[in-house]
């Protein structure tokens, strides 16, 4: 029997090891822009779900590596001594009340907002840096023209950082692939364009400079940090986006008729960040065709997530009629 698509794709998306490069052999995330490569297994070993999400947020590599990508903690004392970050995360795991109370504030439970608040919680407590502002609005009279996600001051200066966490599925022909959000409307290329052309330049505008001067904050350098997951189509490989890092485990998508064998479970959206473990409250996979993309996980005998897969409706992504805009 020949290889099934699942087997081909599993081999395809193992981390690529550059020949003769010891930094990329044997250690997940090595050689990436995260300063915490050696802690890659820690999120799975923590007990509290929200602390696992916190650990994943700080430790996981970016979705893409680029010149304008900067890890928010890269100049912190934790980056110089990753074991101290590990100790701090274990302390949060043993006494999670402060993190739980912080995340419970407000009514916005969107995953992107929770991701921002996880970063804020850590940056407020990180040794060797100072969080000068978060979600700083830029107002011109009664109009809000935008906001700056983070203003961080460290030994390398002041930094305006824009954050996002995204889940993109690759589709289309190999010579012109697109990376789309599960709903089909959000696009990686469009998100990057918005960040680079709209969000990052905000801190250099006269309005922002006036606001920063009033807060006694020096002019910052702008950068982004984009976390998340990329999903290959199960039945055919696509070229990765420029700067993408091949994941350590299979991250695929398919329609129902191609769903690989195994015990797949639905991962609720509130648990999409950190890898699933034995006590992650997954749901049984319903029978029949999904009406909306569902994120599934497959766990090993220990209960640790070993693969992720978006199960999508037939014909995904649904394209609008040609005359829809008329």
UniProtKB/TrEMBL annotation:
InterPro entries per UniProt: DUF1853
Pfam families: DUF1853
Superkingdom, natural source: Bacteria
UniProt-recorded name of the protein: DUF1853 family protein
């Amino acid at each position: 029997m020949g290889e099934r698509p699942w087997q081909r794709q599993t081999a395809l998306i193992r981390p690529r090891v550059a020949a003769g490069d010891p930094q990329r052999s044997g250690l997940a995330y090595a050689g990436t822009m995260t300063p915490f490569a050696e802690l890659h297994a820690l999120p799975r070993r923590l007990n509290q779900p929200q602390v696992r999400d916190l650990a994943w947020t700080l430790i996981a590599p970016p979705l893409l590596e680029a010149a304008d990508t900067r890890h928010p903690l890269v100049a912190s004392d934790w980056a110089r001594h990753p074991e101290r970050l590990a100790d701090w995360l274990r302390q949060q795991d043993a006494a999670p009340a402060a993190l739980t109370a912080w995340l419970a504030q407000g009514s916005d439970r969107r995953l992107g907002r929770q991701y921002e608040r996880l970063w804020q919680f850590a940056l407020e407590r990180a040794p060797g840096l100072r969080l000068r502002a978060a979600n700083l609005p830029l107002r011109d009279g009664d109009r809000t023209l935008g906001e700056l996600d983070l203003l961080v001051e460290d030994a390398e200066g002041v930094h305006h950082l824009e954050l996002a966490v995204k889940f993109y599925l690759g589709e289309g022909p190999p010579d012109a692939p697109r990376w789309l959000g599960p709903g089909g409307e959000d696009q990686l290329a469009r998100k990057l364009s918005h960040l680079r052309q709209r969000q990052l330049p905000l801190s250099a505008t006269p309005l922002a400079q006036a606001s920063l001067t009033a807060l006694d904050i020096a002019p910052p350098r702008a950068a982004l940090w984009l976390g998340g997951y990329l999903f290959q189509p199960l039945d055919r490989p696509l070229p990765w986006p420029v700067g993408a890092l091949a994941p350590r485990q299979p991250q695929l998508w398919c329609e129902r008729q191609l769903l690989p064998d195994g015990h797949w479970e639905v991962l609720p959206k509130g648990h999409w960040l950190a890898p699933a473990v034995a006590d992650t409250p997954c749901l049984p996979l319903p029978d029949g065709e999904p009406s909306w993309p569902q994120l599934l996980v497959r766990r090993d005998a220990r209960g640790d997530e070993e693969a992720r897969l978006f199960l999508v409706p037939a014909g995904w992504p649904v394209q609008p009629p040609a005359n829809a805009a008329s």
